[in-house]
Amino acid sequence: MGEGSDLNAKQNNDIIDSIFNNTLSKSNIFKDRNVLRNEYIPDNIQFRNAQMTSIAQITAPLLIGHKPSNILLYGKTGTGKTVVTKFVLKRLQERASNVGNQLDFAYVNARNASTEYRILVELASTLNIQLPFTGLSISEAFSRILQTIKEKKRMVVFTIDEIDFLVRNFEANILYELTRANENLPAPSFISLIGISNDLQFKEALDPRTLSSLNEEEIVFTPYTVEELQQILTQRAKLAFNENAINQSAINLCAALAGAEHGDARRAVDLLRVAAELAEREGASIIEDVHVRSATKSIEQDRVFEATRSLPLHAKIVLYTISRANEWPSTGSIYSQYSQFCKRLGIEQLTQRRISSILNELDTFGLISAPVISQGRLGRSKKIHLIALVDTVIAGLKEDNVIRQIIN
Q1: Model's pTM, two decimal places?
Q2: 379 pLDDT band (50/70/90 cuts)?
Q3: Do 393 and 308 touch, CB atoms closer than 8 A?
Q4: What is the average per-residue pLDDT within 157-172?
Q5: Helix, strand, or coil here: 105?
Q6: H-helix or E-strand containing 190?
Q7: Rounded to the nearest 10 degrees, how much is the dihedral formed by the CA atoms of 111, 112, 118, 123?
Q8: Do residues 219 and 72 lie in contact, with contact meaning Cβ atoms separated by under 8 Å?
């Protein structure tokens, strides 16, 4: 018994050591892995000259201390909104520094921050303002930020990525306060807003007061074509991989698969990265089509699990309700079942209008399909069904202790 246990332990250690040794040795595939990360900003951004020009023209007055118009950027996921914004603002910050103009740049992803208060905490942190992680009201936290901006005469460019998440899931009070903040900030202080959204319709959910004070210019990012994605991936591959480490057909397949899903460059680059990692793990020296197809399955499962796991509580309840339905339920029947689950959990239910917004968000994520169907004289209604794998959705939902109560 003892010898068998020792032998098994040695085998385990040998397996792990072999994996670590392969990683420490020079890769046959990778030259620079960071080039394929989502946070990487290329020195040369392709096919977005028009959008870069517009952002630069709108924000240029910052160089001479003038507040520009607020900007809203629209486009599907992976159309370059975030990377182009960061690219232009990085250049703007460098030029402002060269001419002796002090600008502050703050960035927050509303989905990752997940609450209005955490959005303010991240804004404050960028400005070196200390706020406790909990304990303050939103109005008090915002008041402290404004007071510091006023006292130190700061000019702030605040970028809110996935701003539609903020609008759909909260009352968006801080967005209203941000749009009106300059009324209480004497020159030269101001806050300039850049909002990034995956949803062209999100402004419909805005309070009329917020909408009227937003005073924005809009820039639309269209999806990439398959040919554009091929060129983007070819450029990244040259930087990321050793010479002759990938077949052109594998690059073309990544582009074709991502192009079929709204021209998503982020998904195309993710496919390329995961395919390369799979090829490396099996000891291959060339990334081929088979690695891309394996990567597609791996990414889809990971995407659904992560998207499900990170949803707000009420969105999880709605998604679980949909996963239990045998037919294509309507919004009304989903709301009825959702309300019952809220009562069982002892939490206050949202309005049917808010649930309709959550359904739109789940549809945008690709977790459900919610087409609007004409019912003749009865009007129009959404017919909803789950399109993500049920087992993966349930696994993601079970990560939440509250949702686990109704699943069990």
Answers
A1: 0.78
A2: low
A3: yes
A4: 82
A5: strand
A6: strand 190-197
A7: -100
A8: yes
CA atoms within 13 A on the CB side of 122: 19
Closest-CA residue to 386 (of 363, 361, 364, 408): 363
Q: What's the pLDDT tens digit per position in 327-345?
A: 788 888 999 999 999 999 9
Q: Assign 86 a pLDDT band (cuts: 50, 70, 90).
A: very high
DSSP assignment string, 241-304: B-TT-B-HHHHHHHHHHHHTTTS-HHHHHHHHHHHHHHHHHTT-SSB-HHHHHHHHHHHHHHHH
β-partners of residue 192 are 157
By C-alpha distance, which of 2, 14, 36 is closest to 254? 36
33 vs 120: CA distance, rounded Å = 33
Between 15-24, 65-74, 301-310, 366-375, the lowest mean confidence (pLDDT) is in: 15-24
State which CATH number among 3.60.70.12, 3.40.640.10, 3.40.50.300, 3.90.1580.10 fits the domain covering 49-220.
3.40.50.300
Contact present, 389 and 297 (Cβ < 8 Å): no
Nearest to 338 by CA among 361, 315, 357: 315
Which CATH number is correct for 311-407, 3.40.50.2300, 2.60.20.10, 3.30.360.10, 1.10.10.10? Answer: 1.10.10.10
User: Which residues of 330-391 form beta strands (DSSP E)?
Assistant: 368-369, 372-374, 380-382, 385-386
User: How far apart are the C-alpha atoms of 106 and 363, rounded to whole Å?
Assistant: 30
Q: CA angle, corner 167, sides to 161 and 173, nearest 5?
A: 105
CATH number of 225-307: 1.10.8.60
Q: So where are the chain's domains?
A: 49-220, 225-307, 311-407
**Residue 207 has which token pair?**
């309070």
Asked if residues 106 and 158 have their Cβ atoms less than 8 Å apart, the reply is yes
Specify the pLDDT at position 214.
Answer: 78
